[in-house]
Amino acid sequence: MSEQVNLFKKAAGEKAVEYIKDGMIIGLGSGSTVYWTLKKLGELVEEGLNVKGIPSSLRTEGWAKEFKIPLTDFSEVQTLDIAIDGADEIDPDFNLTKGGGGSLVREKMVDAHSKKLIIVADESKMVSQLGEFPLPVEVLPFGWEVTAKKIEALGAKPVLREREDSIFISNNGNYILDCHFHTIADPKKLHHELKQMLGVVETGLFIDMTDTIIIAGQNEVKVIDHPNK
Ligand SMILES: O=C(CO)[C@H](O)[C@H](O)COP(=O)(O)O
C-alpha cells in the first residue's frame, strides 16, 4: 500500500469517530482503514468517552484491546447504535463488496444489527459497477469442491483462498472462495442466488445496508449520505 493511500485511509477512518457519542454500542469493522478509527477511538476512551464495541474479527478484537476500547458481545446486546466498517468496492447505489480480509460473516452480523452503518474507504474503492474485485464467498469446508462448481455455473471463476501455501481458514472455521465475476450486473440477485446454494455460508455482497460513506482522496474527505435512508 502506498504512503498516500494509507494517508487517505487514515483521514477517512479518523473522520468516522465524529459520529460516536457517549454511551454508544459500536460495531467495530475490519481492515486497515478501520484500524485508524480504532486508534482514534482509543484516544477518546482514554479521555473519558464511555462506549463499548463488538469486534467483527479477531484482528479487530486484538487492536481494540491494544487501544483499551471496552468490548461487549451479542450475549449482552442485540442492537448496536452504529457500525464503522471498511469495503473493497462501493457502487453508486451504496452496495458493497467486502471480505478482502476474510471477515465477511462477522462483519455482516455486526453491520446488520446496527442502527447506522458508516463505511470508511479511500477513493480507489468507489466503482461504477461491482465485480472487478473478486467476490469473497464463505463456504463450508465439507464439499467445498461441489459448492465451487455450482458458483462456477453462475459465470465466475472461484479460487480457494490460500495464505502462505495453506488454505485460509476464516474466523468461523470455514473456507473462502474468491469468485472472479469481473462484472456483477445485479448484486442483489447474485447475493440471493448464492445464498440459496447448499454449502454457502455468506457472501461478501452487502446490499441496502450502508447509510453513510466517508471517502478520502487527494483533495478532501467526502461524507456522502444515502439519499433514501
Ligand atoms: O471487508 C473487509 C475485511 O473482510 C475490509 O473492511 C475490507 O477488505 C477493506 O479493508 P481495508 O480498509 O484494509 O482496505
From TrEMBL:
Signal peptide: none annotated. PANTHER family: RIBOSE-5-PHOSPHATE ISOMERASE 3, CHLOROPLASTIC-RELATED. Belongs to the ribose 5-phosphate isomerase family. InterPro entries: NagB/RpiA_transferase-like, Ribose-5P_isomerase, Ribose5P_isomerase_typA_subgr, Ribose5P_isomerase_type_A. Homodimer. NCBIfam families: PRK00702.1, rpiA. Its EC number is 5.3.1.6. Substrate binds at S30, G31, S32, T33, D85, G86, A87, D88, K98, G99, G100, G101, K125. It is an enzyme of class 5 (isomerase). GO terms for molecular function: ribose-5-phosphate isomerase activity. It catalyses: aldehydo-D-ribose 5-phosphate = D-ribulose 5-phosphate. This is Ribose-5-phosphate isomerase A. Pfam families: Rib_5-P_isom_A. Pathway: Carbohydrate degradation; pentose phosphate pathway; D-ribose 5-phosphate from D-ribulose 5-phosphate (non-oxidative stage): step 1/1. The gene is rpiA. The active site is at E107 (proton acceptor).
